[in-house]
Amino acid sequence: MLALGSLAACALALALLWLLATQRWGPGGEPGGAGEEDGDTVIGEEGPGAGRCRLICKSSALARSLLRSLRRGAALQSGRGLCRAWPQLQTMVQLLFPPARQPELARELLQLADGGLVALDWVMGPRGTSKSRATTAFGNAPVLLVLPNASGKVTRGVLHLCLLGLEQGYKPVIFNRRGHNGSPLASLKLQAFGDPGDLKEAVTYIRVRQPGSSLCAVSEGSGSGLLLSYLGECGSSSYLAAAACISPVFRCQEWLETGCPWLYEWSLLLHQKRALSRYATALAEVVETGRLFRSRSLREFEETLFCQTKRHPVTWDAYWDRNDPLREVDEAAVPVLCICSADDPVRGPPASTLPMELFHSSPYFFLLLTPHGGHCGFLGEGPCSWSHEVTLQYFAAVAEFFRTEERLKGLQRYRRGGLQKREASSAACHLQEIFSWQRSYTR
Hints:
The protein is of the alpha/beta class. 40% of the residues lie in helices and 13% in strands. The chain has a ten-stranded mixed β-sheet, with helices on both faces. The longest helix is centred in the last third of the chain and has 30 residues, at 386-415.
């Protein structure tokens, strides 16, 4: 938690950002965004709600079901508030301010095949709270796997999402990469930007630990690079029921090369330096630690840590050939909702940073594009992000879609001469049932 002096400095910085945002965007202005195309579906009109939100996707049975769910839900109608037209302010509030409720975490250290360690923080809930108020459409309480941004910073948004998921019957767990958030660095290998190897082992462990639960995954900000890489590399073997990305960064190499607002970049840069400074002596064997801790940008930090190594140096372009989140995205085979704002000051203008062709061509990717929200902000009348409620609503809609499809398929089998025996329920079999309905997405 931030000290009082730090909070005062943050408040002053936010006030200045408010003024800068007013000068840049104006209180009623909007940044340039991607133009509307045929097939885009408008959810809500300009007015007191979240604004002119658009669901951009390929037409399918699942898309129609998701659209009906979003229109019925109240979350998209909570997007009004004083911060609405100030994306910089929304971004900094979520990045720098402490959470309203600090959750209790139960940490597990998972030893990987190469001897490294990652930390899984299971969210137990605030002290004194009652048990989960509801179960979801998945049946057994599903696991909500949350991936923080690529710098490993667990923001107030991540913690709020976990607590909200806990209240709605999920089992939230935060995935911490090697050396992030107090996870011990047991080997000299760190996890590259888009290397899903460690996440694969973590998912395997979670499935063993929670054999009767489905698994949903959510990423925040640049953490989408890891989630999208995992989905593309694993395809239909990802063992996820559904996934969501809040303010994802798609073109990560260009994003690091261009840079982002200085306060956001320096906050994440200092967070990474502080996390790795305790291992400076050990890391000196593989990287130039002097250059690493003098780096002045996220791009310089990433390049020094993973490209300019002493043992196996590679070029910047070669590094991204192996770590680009979109390199195998066409292989993804589970529904993915991406919640983005047109005024995101960190990602950049939607026309050049959002892969619109992916959402128009793939039946698995859905883009909820809002005019306001900043980067991982989406603040409403209160300090909480309405994107979290929409994410959980989306997971419930996907689960209900699969259950309806299963009932229809079962009825058809019955009419043809009797129900077929179902195999004994297990985590693996249950997940394979989900993937058996891939054709339903595009019918």
